[in-house]
Design a protein that fits this description.
The chain is mainly beta. It contains 2 helices and 9 strands, in the order βββββββββαα.
Length: about 120
């Protein structure tokens, strides 16, 4: 920690902001750029504003498409659909576009088939 008591905030993003008459409360969350996505089976990156991005919603993977990420909102009321595309639609899932194979894997994803074969949810 630095002398002022705050950690290096360059590795964090504002997760939630709450305001009252006298106070502003900010909740920070650590930025994790890469994560393993079960659908593609590969390490994926959380998109930043302006990135070419693949968007989709749970159970509607076949409707996935590519557009620019225009807004991210992680406040409670947007929790289910935090990613806004350049088509003005909000979505529950988004990853940075790397190659067409990513999109193909998401579109062809069949969660019910996997559940029946493995017995897992």
């Amino acid at each position: 920690m630095k002398k002022n008591g705050f950690p290096d905030l360059s590795k964090y993003e504002i997760y939630q902001k709450m305001e009252s008459d006298e106070f502003i409360t900010l909740v920070f969350k650590r930025i994790h750029k890469d994560f393993l996505l079960d659908i593609t089976g590969e390490m994926e990156t959380v998109p930043e504003l302006g990135d070419l991005t693949i968007f989709w919603d749970k159970g509607k993977e076949w409707k996935a498409y590519i557009a620019l990420l225009t807004e991210k909102e992680f406040a409670a009321q947007y929790q289910e659909y935090p990613y806004k595309s350049s088509t003005q639609e909000w979505h529950g899932y988004a990853i940075r576009f790397r190659n067409p194979e990513q999109l193909n894997k998401i579109i062809k994803y069949k969660p019910n088939v996997i559940q029946k074969e493995t017995g897992k949810n």
